Amino acid sequence: MNAGMNWKEHGRKIPKENLDRFIPNRSAMDFDFAHHALTEALIEARDGKKKEARELSPSKEAYRKRLAETLGLNRTRILAFRNKPQPPLHSHYHSASLHQQPLKPRRRRIPQSCSKVLDAPNILDDFYLNLLDWGSRNVLAIALGHTLCLWDASTGSVSEFVTIEEDQGPITSISWAPDGSHVALGLNNSQVQLWDSSSIRKIRTLNGVHHSRVGSLAWNNHILTTGGMDGKIVNNDVRIRSHVVGTYRGHTGDLWTQVVSSCLVPLQSNLLATGGGGTDGAIKFWNTHTGACLNSVDTGSQVCALLWSKNDRELLSSHGFSQNHLALWKYPSLVKMAELTGHTSRVLFMTQSPDGSTVASAAGDEFEVLGCFGMPDTAKNLIRMQPMSHFLPCLVSVETVITTSH
């Protein structure tokens, strides 16, 4: 038979798409009411009760209709062709997703007092040095004159790590390697020394890099970048004997003689913040790709150091005269979130903990630990770079050669 033809049944043409026959759904039927509706009609027709019903008074008729509505007796359908749509499944997740109100962002409480104060006698009061650094193994290093001291933030223990000889020191800069086990020291006599904190052993000395004190250090895996009072920036590959792999000239005197502090934003690599010392007192924000100054804020006092949060778009600045305080700024609105006081002299040095929640600041003869940055949203494991132990034999042999040659 042709698929396009209509089927015939009892002389009627039925479209092909309407071939389903009705199957009553018993669960949707009220059999008691159906029986009543069928039998009542027969009884009324036989006994003539319809005539009696029509002769009811208006009040009785209204009462009868109200009673029929209440008891559900005014329905005319006997058979149900389909169920009523079922209500949606009630679940906590479904209900929460429909009725949950938007949550207001929680306002972080910023402590107004430090959690710990430690003595720091003989720390140098010098803008152009970097005497404080917090390593990835949660150990903070601070240079006190010729002595390097370590504070283990996990245990609270303090120890003297090494004391540099008089003709070499004092220590002018510190920087932990990414593995948190090795530390680089810049010295007043232009040397750069690498030390193993586990064995308390010097593993290499970089000579001939600078001609005057080394005031800044920074690691990028195995490349150690140094900056000195001679105005040079030098990249050193500590794995090889001829360690100098790049030199940049252009500055005169100590780096950042006018701009006393600067830092790149961890969450936005092309944004640089700089702070002016002396009478400038401004923090400026720069696009490193175009060189454009994006914004500026007048802090009202000399800017000694800047530190970006690792977890949020927040900037911490430390200041000198007249309040010797710390200021926490929200970027890009530059709203001052908090002003933190407690130091009695200009706050020259700052560093933050590996998880980015806590800041250590040093001034005068003490350093303070303060939890001013927010905790990370999720617990993040610290990603440690490849340890330096895999090329320690190379460093030892190079150290021996350089020592004998010099």
Automatic annotation (TrEMBL):
Protein name: Anaphase-promoting complex subunit 4-like WD40 domain-containing protein
Domain Anaphase-promoting complex subunit 4-like WD40: 165-221
Region Disordered, annotated ranges: 87-106
The entry's keywords: Repeat, WD repeat
WD repeats: 164-205
Lineage: Eukaryota, Viridiplantae, Streptophyta, Embryophyta, Tracheophyta
Gene3D superfamilies: YVTN repeat-like/Quinoprotein amine dehydrogenase
PANTHER family per record: ANAPHASE-PROMOTING COMPLEX SUBUNIT 4-LIKE WD40 DOMAIN-CONTAINING PROTEIN (PTHR19918:SF54), CELL DIVISION CYCLE 20 CDC20 FIZZY -RELATED (PTHR19918)
GO biological process: anaphase-promoting complex-dependent catabolic process; positive regulation of anaphase-promoting complex-dependent catabolic process
One matching Pfam family: WD40
GO CC term (a single one): anaphase-promoting complex
Record-level Gene Ontology MF annotations: anaphase-promoting complex binding; ubiquitin ligase activator activity
